[in-house]
What we know:
The protein is mainly alpha-helical. It is built from 3 helices and no strands. The longest helix has 98 residues, at 21-118.
Amino acid sequence: MKTTNIHQVLIVLVASLMVTGANARTNVAEKVTQLKENAEASKENLKQYEDNLKIVNYNLTETDRALKLLDKQKQALLKQTTETAKGKVAVNAAKMQLESYMKAEQAKLENEQKQIEELKKTLAQLEQNTMKRQENLAKYNEKMTKVDTELAAWSERNQSIVELEQAINEKETLAKTDKERLTKKRAEYEDEIVKWRKQVRVSERTYANFSKLKE
């Protein structure tokens, strides 16, 4: 029942007390019946708001649980991201070292090929050195292929991590929005419950008083 209705009931009650004896008894009986109905309606409203509060409290509990789970997932993702970054640094360092080796070997190969033309006497030894350098280059190229494959795998993993992090952030934003909405709704229901509890007490007290007048 709204506050305006309460005022209207009180005005009617005051007016009913001012009428004469026989009419007063008749009006009192009618008002007692009305007040009883008002008290029952107030109790129904109170129960509805109490039920709504239970639902909101349950939803808040589930939202908090979801937020905690999302936070754990973010922490695990952060750890994985850090490990991924460290692994990538190590692979990049290996690649740079291999590139350095390859450049050194290539420079030696070119230099020794020139020496083959300039130093015929050492051709046999230089040819052996050339074969060795080419063999080393082949091994390094093979390793370089593996390194490039690993780098591609790291890049794909990083992309998956980024997408997962975006999904977690979106869920976290939705969960926080729901928590804010539910917290506001809980406050509204709690306010309504306080109001209707007061209304129940007033209605029951008024009903009791007029029940005595009826008797």
